[in-house]
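Contributing new records

If you add data, match the layout below exactly. Sequence lines come first and carry their own label; structure lines follow with theirs. Keep one chain per record. Anything else will be rejected by the validation script.
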Amino acid sequence: MATTSLASAIALVVLVGCAAPPPEQLSDRDFRELSNSIDFYATYNDAGLEAAAKSVCETMETADANEAWVRALKSLIDQDVPAGDAGQFIVYATSARCPEMVELLPAME
């Protein structure tokens, strides 16, 4: 069941969360505004967003390059973040806080 759920979440993220190529690097203001526009993160304050972004970046940095974004996605889903929200947040967090990891996100063609 968990494998099916993760596979469905990955498909959803590819279709929804990463619908547009991320910018090279988001400003602090854009990161906060975009993150707060995601339903799950709408009530997060700056410290909460920073902690969540730090967790995403640390997960991406410690994972194998071929599965970094999948591990970040799974980590957020395990914390009850809806898949689409998780995908969007991963894009924003990497773009703002660890832009060197952007290339590990799934490419949209």
